Amino acid sequence: MVLRWAKQLERKDQEQLDGRALKQPTFVPTASDYAALAKEHEKLKKLYAEQALEREILRDLLKKRTHTCG
């Protein structure tokens, strides 16, 4: 449908609309790509664990504060 509209509008770049002009090679990840992703994944897991621990500490402090104030 888009190609038909482009033809109706007499576009000069119609060949780009059907994907023929910009054929990109298929991405094939390498071992270094996997290693970089694994490293980033470990970093994010540590960050998540730190934040979870921080939230748990804050919850405990909040519980203690509400019990001593009430």
What is the topological layout?
Blueprint: H1 2-8, H2 14-17, H3 31-69
What does this structure look like?
The chain has three helices and no strands. The chain has helices at residues 2-8, 14-17, 31-69.
Fill in the keyword field for this structure.
mainly alpha, 0% strand, 70 residues, elongated
- What fraction of residues sit in β-strands? under 5%
Shape: elongated
N→C terminal distance: 68 Å
Q: What is the number of E strands? A: 0
Count of discrete alpha- or pi-helical segments spanning 4 or more residues: 3
The SS-based structural class is mainly alpha
Low-confidence spans: none
Mean pLDDT across residues? 83
Order of helices and strands: HHH
The biggest sheet, with number of strands, parallel, antiparallel or mixed sense and barrel status, is:
none
Q: Which bin fits the share of residues in helices? A: over 70%
Please state the CA-atom Rg, rounded to the nearest Å.
27 Å
Produce a short descriptive summary.
Helix content is 71%, strand content 0%. By secondary structure, the chain is mainly alpha-helical.
